[in-house]
Amino acid sequence: MNDETRPAAAAEAAVVTIRACEERDVAEITEIYRHHVLHGAASFELEPPDAAEMARRRRAVVDGGYPYLVAEQGGRVVGYAYASAYRPRPAYRNTVENSVYVAPGRERQGIGRVLLKTLLKACEERGFRQVVAVIGDSGHEASIGLHHALGFRMVGTLRSAGFKFGRWIDIVLMQRALGPGDDTPPSR
Questions:
Q1: In angstroms, rounded to a whole number, what is the distance separating the alpha carbons of residues 86 and 38?
Q2: What CA–CA distance (Å, rounded) separates 106 from 136?
Q3: Residue 171 DSSP symbol
Q4: Which residues pair with 135 in a beta bridge?
Q5: pTM, to two decimals
Q6: CB 35, CB 104: distance < 8 Å
Q7: 96: which of 3, 5, 107, 180 lies 20 to 30 Å off by Cα?
Q8: Is the pLDDT of residue 108 over 70?
Q9: What is d(CA 93, CA 75) in angstroms, rounded to the nearest whole number?
Q10: Do residues 130 and 93 touch, judged by C-beta distance below 8 A?
């Protein structure tokens, strides 16, 4: 490769493709989630689930009519995001909760932003009206900043809601309207 083609190749490798998560992606999303369970407070799980459990969870999200996306870069899954029911009771049916996870070493490269932005659009297209972010750790500035940058507003902090890594961890709640939000009644 000469110097003239190097920038083009580097730019091509940096391209992130967002697409629907498929069964074949389960092994890679399992590894990404495993890292976050073992090393971060984004998830309050203490033991990482295996691929079979992650496949079951993915299937439940997809079968429920919610979007589940992956970010692919250079032929590898480098992040994933999905929306799920915020709460199971019928009155909550227009509100979703979002989750975004980026592969270790790929943070702060815009992957989470493009995933969340695409996820929000997919939720709007499905007619959802509100999205709630439940962010583990009030010190998780990257996640709070990402959500704020995409129009979420802070709605509260649950102090010491979980205990992990030998310390109490807060939960930050952020919310964003989708489509017409609460300006009109929902169609479902």
A1: 24
A2: 19
A3: E
A4: 172
A5: 0.91
A6: yes
A7: 107
A8: yes
A9: 35
A10: no
Return the ∠ at Cα 40 (arms to 145 and 122), rounded to 5°.
50
Mode of pairing for the β-strands spanning 95-102 and 153-164: unpaired
Q: Which ranges in the chain belong to alpha helices (H)?
A: 6-14, 26-39, 51-63, 111-125, 141-149
pLDDT computed for residue 8 by the predictor: 39
Helix, strand, coil share of the chain (percent; to 5)? 35, 30, 35
The predicted-structure confidence for 109-161, as pLDDT tens digits, reads as follows 999 999 999 999 999 999 999 999 999 999 999 999 999 999 999 999 999 99
Q: Give the C-alpha separation, 35 to 90, whole Å.
A: 34
Name which of 157, 45, 166, 179 is nearest 99 in CA terms. 45
- Tens of pLDDT, residue by residue over 45-101, are 999 999 999 999 999 999 999 999 999 999 999 999 999 999 999 999 999 999 999
- What the block records as the tokens of 24 is 């074949």
